[in-house]
Amino acid sequence: MMGLFGAEAIASGIVPRDYQVEDVNKSFDLWDSGTIGTLTRAFTGAGKTIMTCLKFKRWLERGPNYRCMVLSYEQELVRQFAQEVEDVLGSDFTLEIEMASQEIKPGFIPQIVIASRQSLMTHELATEEQREELRKFGLNEIGLLTKAAARRVIAALQAEGDLQEIADGIAEHNSDYRCDHKMKRVSRLYKFDWRDNWLLACDEAHKFSMGMKSVGHIVEWFEQNPQSRRSGVTATPKRRDNVNIGYKLFPGISLDYPFTRAVKAGYAVPYLQRFVQVESLDFRRLKDECGTDQSKWDREVACAIEGQLAKLCEPMLDMVGDRKTLVFSPSVAMAQNVADYINARSEVECPSCASKRWYPTLLVGDGAKCKECGDFLKKENVTKLGIQAHCLHGEIPEQSRRFVYRDHKGDKFQFLSVCGLCREGYNDPDIACVTIFRPVSKAASSLAEQMKGRGSRPLRNCINGLDTPEERLAAIAKSEKANCLIIDLVGVTGLADCASTVQIYADGLPDEIVARAEQIALTGGVDDPEAAIEQAKREDAEEKERLRLAREAERQKRIEEAERRAKLDADVKYSTHEVGTANYEQRDPSMATEGQIKFLHMLGMDFTGWEPTKRQAGRMIGQLKEEGLSREEVAHTNRIPGECWKKSGPTPNQLRALCRSGVDARDMTPIEVKNAFDLVKQGKPVPQPFREVAKALLSDIGKAETNDALDVLVNAVKASRQAGYLNNEEYVEICAKGREKRKNIF
Question: Which stretches of 139-208 are assigned E, i.e. beta strand?
Answer without folding.
Answer: 179-180, 185-186, 197-203
